[in-house]
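Quick one - inputs below.
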Amino acid sequence: MTARIVSLAEAVAELVHDGDTVALEGFTHLIPVAAGHEIIRQRRRGLTLVRMTPDIVYDQLIGAGCAAKLIFSWAGNPGVGSLHRFRDAVQHAWPVPLEIEEHSHAGMANRYVAGASGLPFAVMRGYSGTDLPAHTATVAPIQCPFTGEMLTAVPALNPDVGIVHAQRADRRGNVQFWGITGVHKEVVLASARSLVTVEEIVDELTPMPGAVVLPGWAVTRVALVPGGAHPSYAMGFSERDNDHYQAWDAISRDRDTFGQWLTEVLG
Amino acid sequence: MSWTADEMMTVAAARALRGDTRCFVGIGLPSTAANLARRTHAPDLVLVYESGTIGAKPDRLPLSIGDGVLAETADAVVSVPEMFNYWLQPGRIGVGFLGAAQLDRYANINTTVIGTDYDDPRVRLPGAGGAPEIAASCGEVIVVVRQSTRTFVDRVDFVTSVGHGKGPGDRERLGLRGRGPVLVITDLGVLEPDPGDCELTLTRLHPGVTAEQAVAATGWPLRIAPGVTTTEPPSDDELTALRSLTGAEEPA
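Output:
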């Protein structure tokens, strides 16, 4: 079986349902922004959104009222400041209340690793002495059966849908990406269904230094979306549009200017 | 050349990095300081960014940890699970550079919420990111933060990353492997944990800053070390290198 190549609108309609747990990943690089906008356009509701570093596309999804819950480790506009729609949802329940489940990066990364490994939990050193375990039910102490050392267990994350952006795929849906690869591989393998948006579709994948290839049979759907990571980076295709990140700060501060932005995206 | 308080803070942070130290760097002031150190006295410094780039040698300041210039110039690019599990957790990184929204007298750090009700915070901050494990596992930690009573508080509202807990022996009891914060570098001076009880003590003042100013900018009764010294002002070479990195002009 190979990944079926479909349009972005078709892929989101088919894969993402109201109430799903959805992870759009990309550790500052290769963020599937266009896919996030399509979820907004299709007006999904009640989503549990998962992402290590929710940045402006998650601010947009939250402000648009798509999310009921956020599972994350660092929420900000990288290099710029706060996420104002996220803050408004947490501090004032606007436009809807947002439940949060909060981890560290190491905790989230390990939760995906457990998910991709088909294990119920991952074990790590971390969280000791912090106030995070008191507020996060998915952090628990565990004793090493061999040494007796106390460690931390975090449960597997297995989203209903995992979405990432990549540089390219071939016509059989084999996906190739390189550069800063974040948790791309882990989230695709941990999720029940997956969508990869790509910059280009080629006849043959060209070997690239350090590239990761996910075989088509490990991916549910592939959609051709050139520029689908804008304003984030797609190494070899586009640089970060830093002005866009800075402009978002002003747009998102105010509910009305955000509303205007939203109307434009919804078309 | 004249300089700003932020430039003094950045130069002081850069000077704290020596030799071929492996340094875990975040974007912002830590990244600026680490890149300045590599351009001046510490060309062999190994810059590690949490996005997975090890030994990055950027020719300009990266805009974010996802900047292609980090991946293109690194000795190795690894996935995020590998970065945290193989490189950070076993103690392969010598120095971690952290910022703080709140910091207490034992250098415990809050970047999660302002206000004591987690579920109804006065201000929701970005959260933990990589910091708890950086604070736990790096050989030592340097905190870089502007000093004010808003930031330097008697008690942090939330412990995101452990400094020295409530005092001596706490890190060991918690199973934290590194030495924890050894320096807190601010725009006013430098604080170090007292070797006896771990309380942050002012050991250096930047040129032109008085001890009274530092005390007034601290939300607990700040101790001043008996032999408090004055930081060497930034040299022309340091300022030139810093401004070529940041694109800043000489202050008027």
